[in-house]
């Protein structure tokens, strides 16, 4: 077998891995590049080595756009083979891909209207209609169900991280390869821990937190402190949030804190139609995560759901302390930008970042202390207080990953190629695993071809 690292290597986004046997070609993950502009430009470049008419299948680890968001592009180019994934991932992709197409259309229209682009007619990478059409390619399987694509046998197993997330195990030509996908945590608030891996001949391992430990601060106490401090200051708490996973976790945590009377009864608004729909999916898949049906009900009834643009605009009339949860999690788009334009200049405002901020995103720039933030082509003064919750990440840190590997049935000296990490994280994970394990660990190179 040959593996071509076409994305998700030497960076944390754009996951794409082409696996080729003598008779079969599959793409494991099909993600968008996010973050730095030089990376996002790759979304517009031809995908090397991939002939969509000769591709037998796309195997999808989970729904996040850096793993799934390029599927409509391949559909646009003529791909009509299956996209095989867990059934929960299909439901989430139906929401995420449509929203991605919609936002790209909106951005293209905005930049055209205000002449902010060097192109006379800015075009979206793909439209919502194209994203919707690509969903017709999806086929679903359950965890631990073995199926075949050509001469490749495939199994998906629970990886934690988010609903439907999987590690993918493929077997062909006498070799077995594991693709970790994004690996969850043993103590996640919502998700169950990742299942240990079987014996493998090669593992492609994510390294998002390869050089960082998760903060051991009690996340409930930290969220309580942020809410109370903002309320006492008479301000608004803005939470840029990922629609899948993080929004549900925050709703659940706020429900717990309200019930325990650890925070005041502030109005809480979930200003994200996508996150609202995702929350309903989490409620329907209660057997796939830690929450009971009662806890899911409480989670989904803590916030006031804001669906329409008119309802979102009406929040500008709020003068008393309140909480707004809105996408996107890295502050790259979505309704959170409109709230930030209005509220960042106010020193009483608190912005709470609750997840990883890829380099080049507004969230990353705010973490670096940006005093002005560019939103919709205009610079906005940032007087808000910034708070960060590191303890809610859906990724295992390097100790979590090491322990997961030690619990797995992996043989001594097994090669590991590190993927899906920023350069410092990749270096940190490599050094740590070389020091603490007996695996043969190296960092995958972009466009490298690896023969098993």
- Strand order of the main beta sheet, please? 6-5-4-3-2-1-22
Q: Could you name the CATH class of the largest domain?
A: Alpha Beta
Q: Which CATH architecture of the largest domain would you pick?
A: 4-Layer Sandwich
- CATH topology grouping of the largest domain: Metallo-beta-lactamase, Chain A
Instruction: Name the poorly predicted regions.
Output: none
The overall average pLDDT, rounded, is: 94
Helix/strand class: alpha/beta
Count of distinct strands: 22
Helix proportion of residues, in percent? 25-40%
Number of helices: 14
Percent strand = 15-25%
CATH homology-level superfamily of the largest domain: Ribonuclease Z/Hydroxyacylglutathione hydrolase-like
Q: Globular, elongated, flat, extended or rod-shaped: what is the shape? A: globular
Largest sheet: 7 strands, mixed
Spatial extent as radius of gyration: 21 Å
Q: End-to-end span in angstroms?
A: 5 Å
Overall tally of structural domains: 2
In words, what does this structure look like?
With 452 residues, this protein is an alpha/beta fold. It folds into 2 domains: 269 residues, Metallo-beta-lactamase, Chain A (4-Layer Sandwich), CATH 3.60.15; 174 residues, Rossmann fold (3-Layer(aba) Sandwich), CATH 3.40.50. It has 14 helices and 22 strands. Strands 6-5-4-3-2-1-22 form a 7-stranded mixed sheet. Strand 1 and strand 2 form a beta hairpin. It is globular.
